[in-house]
Amino acid sequence: MAALTGWRTARLDDPAPIRAFLDRDRILTAYALGDLDAAFWPHTVFYGACGATGRVEALALVYRGLDPAVFCAFGAPDGVAAILDAHDLPDEVYTLLPPALEPVFSARYTLHHPHHEWRMALDPGAFVSPPLDDVAHLSGEHAAALADLFRHAAEPGEEIIAFSPWQIEHGTFFGVWDEGALIAAAGTHVWSCAERVAAIGNVFTRPDRRGRGLAARCTAAVAREALAAGLDPVVLNVRIDNAPAIHVYEKLGFRIYSPMIEGPARRRGV
User: Fold this and answer.
1) Which helix (H) or strand (E) holds 183?
2) Burial class of residue 159, CB neighbours in 10 A (0-12, 13-18, 19+)
3) How far apart are alpha carbons 213 and 236 in whole angstroms?
4) Rounded Cα distance, 189 and 194, in Å
5) What's the pTM?
6) Residue 80 backbone dihedrals phi, psi, to 5 degrees
7) Packing angle, helices 243-252 and 214-228, rounded to 10
8) What is the pLDDT of residues 80-111, one digit of tens each?
9) 164-195: buried (b, 16+ CB within 10 Å) or exposed (e) per residue?
């Protein structure tokens, strides 16, 4: 166990104290909760920082199931700083952080073109689904079609970081087809029945088919599946300046919860 400025830090191999910390705010920590699932646990390393109370007061994780690895952190900024300084973390990461942790992270990593986003959470009692007759469930055999859709639907310079074909089999994806081509889709970054949490993402519509409510229907199909499975919270991230998408999600029953920052980063001096 490493010590720094009064903080004791260590790699955490027991899910119990990790879950106890994350359960304090399940909406904010939804992605990290999903990484406790048996499907994600082998790819994830958790680090904790304990202060004078002896309880975990800051937590960070590195998920290596994607390239680059994903880094998330929560809790006391000084504790997160202690973790960053005491442990051998990747030089390149894709980070997802509450804004309060951006200063300690940016002192050690350079964030490239960070995105400012809202974390939104689904209010189950407010969920309203549009008709889903044209929305189909997607499976692993559709990985190539999804990847092709993401490439063609991404904005200029937008990187598709949080997707791998493995996620299709360990999550839930829905799409709309037209003449054999996948023209819209939505899926999950996180899906865990064990931890009762889902994070919706990879929502894309082909540029020539936008404005028809396709993304809303695909997102609604994923949300409906999550609610039917008893998952709570069901969350998603959306750019703060993407007013049309925010409006769509609010109509489905999502509510703005907290700001987040995400983007690729590289360790300073490397």
Assistant:
1) strand 181-192
2) exposed
3) 18
4) 15
5) 0.92
6) -65, -40
7) 40
8) 999 999 999 999 999 999 999 999 999 999 99
9) eeebbebbbbbbbbeeeebbbbbbbbbbbeeb
* CA 176 to centroid of chain Cα atoms: 23
For residues 118 and 237, the answer to whether their CB atoms sit within 8 Å is yes
User: All domains of the chain, ordered by start, with CATH?
Assistant: 2-117+262-267 (3.40.630.30), 121-258 (3.40.630.30)
Per-residue pLDDT tens digits for 151-191: 877 665 445 555 567 788 889 999 999 999 999 999 999 99
By the 10 Å C-beta count (0-12 exposed, 13-18 middle, 19+ buried), 87 is classed as: middle
- Give CA–CA dist 68/92, Å, rounded: 6
Strand extents, DSSP E, 88-132: 92-97, 109-111, 115-122
- Round to whole Å and give the CA distance between 148 and 183: 10
Residue 187, strand partner residues = 201
Pair type for strands 44-50 and 7-12: antiparallel
Q: What angle do CA 66, 261, 36 make, to 5 degrees?
A: 45
**First CA to last CA distance, the chain:** 26
Cα separation, 270 vs 268, in Å, equals 6
